[in-house]
Write a structure and sequence with these properties.
241 residues; mainly alpha; Arc Repressor Mutant, subunit A; Four Helix Bundle (Hemerythrin (Met), subunit A); 2 domains; two-stranded antiparallel ribbon; 11 helices; 71% helix
């Protein structure tokens, strides 16, 4: 039997229903917050049973496209960058655990992303933004001997810069990056003296943001990330691209 003669694999009914529902969700006739037809109406429209409709809707819910509430009709979900990035989380953590090269690639991508992020923050910051950054640095300084809590403030510092940039995609990616890298980052910061170095570098970044100097802010951020990566490589030389 040739490949052309081989029987085609039949698509699951739920996959076909999902495709039809996607067309409905993405049509100009519907908007976020709108209710879909009832399960019974969808069963009749697509000529399928309840299991196929439910499986298709649950799949779309897991992808962040539908909201399903007990006792009510499914609604089209509001678009959310954060939700989209969150859905990548388990796959990314799996890659980071089993592919050292992915960790190096992610750190490289993070550097490019953070440099532009801090440039925007230097251009757009307000006095209130500077006050929030100062409070984060003060709080981090108070927990230098507590690595897990210090890491929380470290992440908060970078997330605040992302928020100052005014770009919600930066904010969502910053949140995700620290979540994905948190296990490796905690190990790294346990190297003696890392907390004090981090605080000093963060202060230089804030000074450049306060001066509205995008180039200096980017240089300070690059020095910070390069030092952190170098420290990580010395602590864990087996983890290399």
């Amino acid at each position: 039997m040739t490949t052309r003669d081989a029987p085609r694999r039949r698509r699951k009914l739920s996959d076909q229903v999902q495709e039809r529902l996607l067309e409905l969700i993405q049509s100009s006739a519907m908007a976020p917050g709108d209710e879909l037809p009832s399960e019974r109406e969808l069963m009749q429209a697509f000529n399928v049973g309840r299991p196929a409709v439910r499986e298709a809707m649950q799949s779309l819910q897991s992808r962040g496209l539908l909201e399903i509430r007990h006792g009510g009709r499914a609604r089209i979900a509001e678009p959310s960058i954060g939700r989209m990035v969150e859905q990548m989380g388990e796959t990314m953590r799996h890659l980071l655990t089993h592919s050292p090269a992915t960790l190096e690639h992610l750190k490289e991508a993070r550097a490019t992303f953070e440099l532009e992020m801090v440039r925007l923050a230097a251009r757009r910051r307000s006095e209130g933004d500077l006050a929030r950054l100062a409070r984060i640095l003060e709080a981090a300084d108070s927990v230098r001997s507590d690595p897990p809590r210090f890491i929380e403030y470290d992440g908060q510092f970078h997330r605040e810069i992302a928020a100052i940039s005014g770009n919600p995609i930066f904010a969502a990616l910053s949140e995700a990056l620290f979540g994905w890298l948190s296990h490796f980052h905690v190990d790294m910061v346990r190297v003696p003296g890392a907390e004090q170095l981090t605080l000093g570098e963060h202060r230089l970044i804030v000074e450049a943001i306060a001066a509205r100097d995008p180039d200096q802010a980017a240089r300070a951020m690059l020095d910070h990330l390069n030092r952190a990566n170098s420290l990580y490589q010395r602590a864990f030389p087996e983890v290399r691209a």
